Amino acid sequence: MAANSSDGIDPSEFYINSDQADHSQFELADVDNVKSGKLAVILKSVNIFKHLDDNKLLDVADSFTVQNFQSGAHIVKLGKKANCFFFILLNGVAGVHQTRKNDQTLHEIFTLRRLDYVGAVDIFFNREYSSTVKAKMFLSCTNMNHVMFDRLIKPILEDIQSKAEEYKTFMNLCLKKRTI
Questions:
Q1: Which SUPFAM superfamilies has this protein been placed in (predicted)?
Q2: Domain range holding 164?
Q3: Are 114 and 44 in contact (CB under 8 A)?
Q4: Which of 73, 86, 97, 155 is the most buried (most CB within 10 A)?
């Protein structure tokens, strides 16, 4: 694989529409042709994956499968056991719906776009999905099953959680020393 001096992976090797400068939109016909290298390039722009080396990015990308949803289709359903982790890496928009207190009607609370993900927190804590997510238009995303999530993504999130706790402890110690 050719190296790019800025991020290690040369996207020109993987993009189907290599003439497209920002690679933000894919042709509908291209969705099924997505390769791990292309996903790795895209994953590099997601905060939780920015620090991963190229090999780890490719391992993560290899574990995703592409899934398409028609407008109105449910991606995840509130109350269903979380068993997949979804990324909107390719194209599409989805609405996130939740119920309000004393009201069982689903209300849209926000919109997910490219590079947003669904189910990470729920699958991390081994619980039911906390929202219903529906495609607002044709949507192409990637998904990863629970087993691969636990093997590849959970350690990344646990590392982030650990670093946040270490930082909080450090800041508390700094504040205590100032008051002594």
A1: cAMP-binding domain-like
A2: 11-179
A3: no
A4: 86
Full-model pTM: 0.67
pLDDT in tens, 44-96: 888 878 888 888 888 888 888 889 999 999 999 999 999 988 887 678 999 99
| Residue given tokens 């959680």 in the structure block | 161
For tokens 């290899």, what's the residue?
62
Amino acid, res. 157: L
Kindly write down the DSSP assignment for every residue of 46-89, as one continuous string.
SGGGTT--HHHHHHHHHT-EEEEE-TT-EEE-TTSBP-EEEEEE
Indicate which CATH number applies to the domain containing 55: 2.60.120.10
What's the CA gap between 144 and 156, in Å, rounded?
15
Please compute, for residue 13, the number of CA atoms within 13 A of its CA located in the half-sphere on the CB side: 12
Tokens found for residue 89: 């890496």
In a domain, 1, yes or no: no
**What is the C-alpha radius of gyration for the chain, rounded to an integer number of angstroms?**
19
